Amino acid sequence: MQLKRLAEAKLPTSWGDFLMIGFEEIATGNNHLALLYGDISGSSPVLARIHSECLTGDALFSLRCDCGFQLEAAFNYITKVGRGVLLYHRQEGRNIGLLNKIRAYALQDRGADTVEANQQLGFAADERDFTLCADMFKLLNIETIQLLTNNPKKIEVLAKAGINISERLPLVVGRNSKNTRYLDAKATKMGHLFNIPPIK
After folding, report:
1. Fewest 10 Å CB contacts: which of 11, 65, 80, 200?
2. Residue 126 is among the residues annotated as catalytic for this protein
3. Sheet of 164-169: strands edge to edge?
4. Across 56-73, average pLDDT
5. Rounded Cα–Cα distance for residues 118 and 104 (Å)
6. Average confidence (pLDDT) over 25-42
7. Marked catalytic residue, from 126, 129, 135, 181
8. Nearest-CA neighbor of 36 among 61, 68, 13, 59?
């Protein structure tokens, strides 16, 4: 187990009231969050979203990515279903950090796509560690999930870590003229799945 569960408190939002639970990585002290809605106990699959931190998209309303749109859609879907969990995975910029993300944006402004920009900075296309998310699910006593994702890597890593994924649900939202090339690069170079209509 790479994490420990440290604190919890109520989090009222415009979508509804969540329980916010804070986790700390034992090796690094880095923090992550789980937002729980409704009663997630029992053996039925829990609707789940792993949302990697994106300051520019989540808080600054950037149109360069689909992150903020996905975060809002995940809140909508979870509260509509009536039970679920959103893991806020704090690995900014696919885990290259905020300043390197800005550097990657500058390279994209000069013609690189999102994958090429990371590689030009000396990083892999995706540096995130989703095994931390598997540990969060285990600490929450969640064994089976319906996963809101377009990213097959999340499914692969979670399954290897012992999390049962009963269903993948697409989260196709937020495409616009500013992020079309970004989304196309994620599809063609990282295998993200955008060919299934979004949840109604």
Report:
1. 200
2. yes
3. 3-12, 17-25, 31-37, 84-89, 46-52, 144-148, 164-169
4. 96
5. 6
6. 96
7. 126
8. 13
Q: Give 195's contacts (C-beta < 8 A, 6+ positions apart).
A: none
Instruction: Look over the chain and give the mean of its residue pLDDT values, rounded to a whole number.
Output: 93
CB neighbour class for 18 (10 Å; exposed up to 12, middle 13-18, buried from 19): buried
pLDDT of residue 182: 86
DSSP state of 79: H
* pLDDT in the model for residue 198: 43
The answer to whether the Cα torsion of 196, 53, 25, 17 is positive or negative is: negative
Catalytic-labelled residue, pool 128, 135, 181, 184? 128
Is position 113 annotated as part of the catalytic site? no
Torsion of CA 80, 54, 56, 21, to 10 degrees: 60
User: What is the reported pLDDT for 116?
Assistant: 94
> Looking at the chain, how many residues does it have?
200
Structure-block tokens of residue 68: 């903020």
| Tokens standing for residue 199 | 């949840």
Using one digit for the tens of pLDDT, what is the confidence trace for 159-182? 999 999 999 999 999 899 999 888
Number of Cβ atoms within 10 Å of the Cβ of 10: 8
